[in-house]
Structure formats: structure tokens, C-alpha cells
Sequence to fold (194 residues):
Amino acid sequence: MSIAVVAVNPVIETGGQIAAIVICLFTLLLVVVSLALHFALAFAFTWVRDKSELIKKPRPGLESMNKATEAALEGVEPTAIENPVVRTVATVPVKVHAVEQKVDQVSDRVAGALIELRARTFQAQAIARAFLAPGLIRRKSASSLVDKEGLEFNSPGYRRLMEEQAPEIPVAPESGEGYAKTVTAAQLKNVPSR
Fold:
């Protein structure tokens, strides 16, 4: 067996050694960065776990506060509760509910008084007009209820609805060959039915 001797170019040998050193440096840098990232994530997850445990601690107190509040709204006295904070918080919705009922009662009385005042004012005006100027009072006739377009309602909403929902209605032609003409809603006032 013969061993072949290959001549090595010194430039290629030096380039290979430089490449090996660069690869080792990049590998070392990758290991250091990944270790730093792992330590940072471990610290962050530990911190989050501790904070999530803090969130779970007040839950029993909040549940007892919610139950006490619901019981207080149903009429159970909150004085039987041992915890003074829960007792105080449980009385707040009861007081708010009582204030809300008082406000509703007062606003209903004020609204009723205003409606009564307005009705009496119109009544007094109508009586004054009837006695002082009887010729000025006109009665609306049935023909004044129908306007020039034939619509019987003076409501703008009704007019808009009629114009939007039925702007054109297809009409069958005399020959029976499909729809040839259209009729608008304004043209329908004096059309006989078939």
C-alpha cells in the first residue's frame, strides 16, 4: 500500500484554520446567547407564577363579599358577617338601591306634575279661545286630511316609507308578454283593482 503525499497549499491551510476559529466563536456566541435567553425566560416564568398565585389569594374574600352583597339585596341584614370590610361593602348596594328607589319616586312625581301642568295649560288656552274668539276655531274636514298626493297620513316617516318601499311597481302589458311598464307609488291613488 502506498501512501500518497499531497502537497498542501499554505494559503488554503491558513484559511481553513481561520474558518475553524470563526465557526468556534460563533458556536460559543450561540451557546452564551441561548443560555442567557433560557435564564431570562426561567426568571420571567417564575415571576409570572408568583404573580398568578397573588391573584388567587383574594378570591375567597371576594366570593364571600359577593355572597354577602347578594344576601343584602335580598333583605338579609349584613350585621351577621364577621369581617367588617365585607359587612361595609355589603351595605353599599342596599343603600344605592334605596337611593335609586327614592330618585325614581321623586322623578315620577315631578313628571306627573309637569304633564298635569301642561295639560291644564292647554285646557285653559282652549277654553279661553272658545269663549273669547269662537270664530277663530276651525274644525278640520275630512277632505283636509287627504293631501294633494292622495296620502292620508301627514307623517314624514310614512311618506318616506311609501316612497322608498314602493317607488315602482311592474305592470303586466295588455299582450301578456312579461312586464313592460312600471308604475310609481304616486300613480296608484286612483287605479281600479282587477
